[in-house]
Amino acid sequence: MRFKILTILCLWISASIAYAQNHEEADIRDLVESVAENLSEDYDLTELTEVLDRFKKHPINLNQTTKDELKRLVFLSPLQISNLLNHFKENGKFLDVLELQAVEGFTVEIIEQLLPFVTVDQNLTFAELKDKNIYKNGENNLFLRYARTLQKLKGFEDLPGNKYLGTPDRFQLRYRYHNDDRLAASLTLDKDAGEKFFNKPFDFYSGSIALFKVGRIKKLILGDYTMQFGQGLTLWSGFSFGKAPDVTSVAKKDLGLRPYTSSNEYAFFRGTAATLFYKNIEITPFVSLRKLDASQSFDADSNLVQSTINQTGLHRTPTEIKNKNSLSQLVLGSVFQYNEGEFSIGGIAYHTNFSSSFISQSSVYDHFSFTGQSLTNLGLFYNYTLQNIYLFGEGAKSIRNGFAFNSGALLSLSRTISCAIFYRNYNKDYHSFFNQATSENTEAINEDGLYAGLNVVPNKVWHISFYADYFKFPWLKYRVDAPSKGYEILGQIKYTPGKAFKATLRYKSEIKQQNTDLEVPLNFLDQIRKENYRLEFNWQINKQWKFQNRLEVSQFKKGIQPREFGYLAYQDINFPQLFGKLTGNVRFAYFSTAGYNSRIYAYEDDVLYSFAFGVYSGKGFRSYLNLKYKLNDRLDAWVRYAMFRYRDVQTVGTYLDEIEGNKKTDLKFQLRYQF
Amino acid sequence: MKVWYVLFISLIPQFLFAQNNLGPRLTAIGKNAIAVSDVWSIQANPAAGQDLKSAIIAIAYLRHFFSNEISSQAFAAAIPFNNNLVATSFQAYGFSEYKESKIGFGYAKKLGPDFSLGLNANYHQLKIAGYGHITGLSLDIGTYYKLLKEVALGASVINIAQQQYASEALKSDIPTVFSIGSSYQPTEEVLVAVTISKILKQPVDASIGIDYKFARGFSLRGGISICPFKQYGGFGLNYKQFLLDMATVYDPNLGYSPQMGISYAF
């Protein structure tokens, strides 16, 4: 009898603890999920989840926070951050976190998202933290990840010409060290499928050591780092959010200089950089020397030249291996920032120099692409909060090339309505190798546009968003042999009657122009219309079992040709702690698209809250299973099994990625050791 | 050149609907008038004047896309008394050789604290130099319902009997339009309005607009319509009982169409 009671008690306790833990992870997961929708396919979300995970363990003290710290919370808009800091100035410190409700622009939804990452503590001061032993508070995280496609790709067969010279495994090692926000170090080793395993010594390696808050030095980094300033026109390495249902995302939140922790093999600087401050002024000098991949040839004078930089970071075939590290890039410059209360202004100047020249390609649309061996960029950016309006903008000039600028405003018109308006004008010959400004094109050049967005949140239950973006391309583009224009509109309604249920309805329509496919004597532009309709339900049972259903329809129509339709329906199930220490989620999806043009994208769960973007193109089934097992206090293990099963096809994939048969299965293992 | 304008106007259905001038304030918010209380909204929804507190007269002038010669002039007035509203309007569109005009008389009645019903009778005339003139009659009907303090709903049908000009010689349509709309006004300063409308023989159109009282006496407005895609913007100045409004419509293919109007509230 006693044994029975004891067992039940133990199970109940472990279930409660397990529930609490599951709940914690669920917060971050839901948050990153909602943000993931707005990203490009190659955005590395692991860094974002790492940041949020750390804020979970060391919550931000609202009473002593700074604008820079709040900017790292990806779901807060610049206007909300200004309002919060202003609130402290006018009304003093918080006694309780729930006082957030009194701040303008903080809806119940935002506060609920924010709660796990903030705290209000009046007793902790900087002095107490400063003198602790540097080793006592060090936190180490070590990740090992192994993945593999089970089927054999064509590139691994014994082919005469182009083939993959390495092994089909994908391997990654990440090591992170943090100490009280004073010292940080990181190391990343990565090998993609098809690359050789031990290769001088690893295909991709990246690391950095960073020091913070030492005297006049705000940050000092040795190794790999990223720079993100202003609105992304002049100097922004990495990726950034695009247009999204959250209309405030058009205003970028620049985080300045940061250590590089992603596994993307292109988007970073390597060298040394520091941010120094004096009163209201910050200066960030930097220097970077890197080797990039480029396909090179000899020109008439026997000089080595190239036309583009290869950003994929893949070194699998003999050609890719030959191109590896063939181009040397030197970047040096400085950023100057001045902050005075609500007003910030910054200036950027830097110079990029390559070991060999860029030449232009033969197509007319490439007429204005970058040529030469070096480039100097200048930029000026500002932001200013005036009562309930957040103004922002940036102007950039590439010397002896074009000019670009953008400017906009976020307005909080009432407690329930906020809107955004954003104008951009990017010359066709504006160049910058670190350009991630908001644009319709993948690169922010050759575009004029006006964006207007509206957010209406009348109460806790309804959330309505809408935006319309009108754009023009003054010069030609790939497959567009004349200046063209188009527009994009998105409308979304979210209905959340209670914590256990949420419904979302979204409509997106995009009109652009492209060369006609018809055989005609005189080429003209056809109109391409893409429409997406989405209906999604999120519901919970007992706060532990979570379900998500989505139905998405896409439509593609070019000129007078018949419409192409695509459908995707999926069911996600998140299950709570089972059999002790196991948690996980599973997806079952069916999709059917008439062709590649009507393909549908949907984010997919991956190991450790990291997300992948699934491309659903063709006809078939998709399913995956993610499991997490807690081995002990310091060790966690994940496993992922994902499969595409296509219908009516003999092969999957193209060129060297082709697989015989109609299935593609991926297996992934991950181990995390925290000490 | 003038003949060319005439052909141009008569061949493009959009221009025919342009004769329904909604005044610069409602145009600036994306031609959203169904659930917005304004002296001009009676042109789109005869019952939408429910919340007018006093008599208003207004005039407006509009320059059309493409040319300096084609313009619209309009006049509107509304007088509320007891639970009724009487309104009159006049619109003229075109240029010397081509003139479309319309005179309307409207009446709306409040059938409860939140609900009203309205009717508008219009007399149309189309005059083309060298061809003579033709006339027509049309009837509009509308309803307006105040759902909550902040939310209003409206629905209307323009030219409910699908009347046309009474002439065999000239085939010209008076468009029939079905619309439903809503407005949301959480505070005194902000108004968001949405309309979905269907003109017979044309695809469904939706529009959204916002009116923001930026400072005392000054308003900023913007709007978007989807099919065809157009952007709208404008501002308004309020001095004592005078209202001065300016607006412009931007059509990606046709360019800008500016307009201005003055109204006086008694």
Summarize this structure as a short list of keywords or feature phrases.
heterodimer, A: 675 residues, mainly beta, 26-stranded mixed sheet, 12% helix, globular, B: 266 residues, 3 helices, 8% helix
Description:
The complex is a heterodimer of chains A (675) and B (266). By secondary structure, chain A is mainly beta. Helices cover 12% and strands 50% of the residues of chain A. Chain A has seven helices and 32 strands. In chain A, the strands form four sheets. Chain A has a 26-stranded mixed β-sheet that branches. In chain A, strands 1-2 form a two-stranded parallel sheet. A two-stranded antiparallel sheet of chain A has the order 26-27. Residues 10-23 and 125-135 of chain A have low confidence and may be disordered. With 266 residues, chain B is mainly beta. The model of chain B is unreliable at 9-18 (pLDDT under 50). Helix content of chain B is 8%, strand content 56%. In chain B, strand 1 (56-63) and strand 2 (71-81) form a beta hairpin. Chain B has a 14-stranded antiparallel β-barrel. The relative contact order of chain B is 0.19. At the A-B interface, strand 17, strand 18, strand 19 and strand 20 of A face strand 10 of B.
What's the SSE blueprint?
The complex is a heterodimer of chains A (675) and B (266).
Chain A: H1 2-36, H2 46-57, E1 60-61, H3 67-71, H4 78-91, H5 108-114, E2 118-119, H6 126-130, E3 138-149, E4 169-179, E5 183-191, E6 204-214, E7 217-228, E8 256-259, E9 269-278, E10 281-298, E11 304-310, H7 318-323, E12 327-340, E13 343-358, E14 372-386, E15 389-398, E16 403-412, E17 417-426, E18 447-456, E19 462-473, E20 484-498, E21 501-515, E22 525-541, E23 545-558, E24 564-578, E25 582-593, E26 600-605, E27 611-616, E28 619-630, E29 635-646, E30 651-652, E31 659-660, E32 663-674
Parallel strand pairs in A: 1-2, 11-13
Antiparallel strand pairs in A: 3-4, 3-32, 4-5, 5-6, 6-7, 7-8, 7-9, 9-10, 10-11, 10-12, 12-13, 13-14, 14-15, 15-16, 16-17, 17-18, 18-19, 19-20, 20-21, 21-22, 22-23, 23-24, 24-25, 25-28, 26-27, 28-29, 29-32, 30-31
Chain B: H1 2-11, H2 13-17, H3 23-28, E1 56-63, E2 71-81, E3 84-95, E4 98-110, E5 115-128, E6 132-146, E7 151-158, E8 177-184, E9 190-199, E10 204-215, E11 218-225, E12 230-239, E13 242-251, E14 255-265
Antiparallel strand pairs in B: 1-2, 1-14, 2-3, 3-4, 4-5, 5-6, 6-7, 7-8, 8-9, 9-10, 10-11, 11-12, 12-13, 13-14
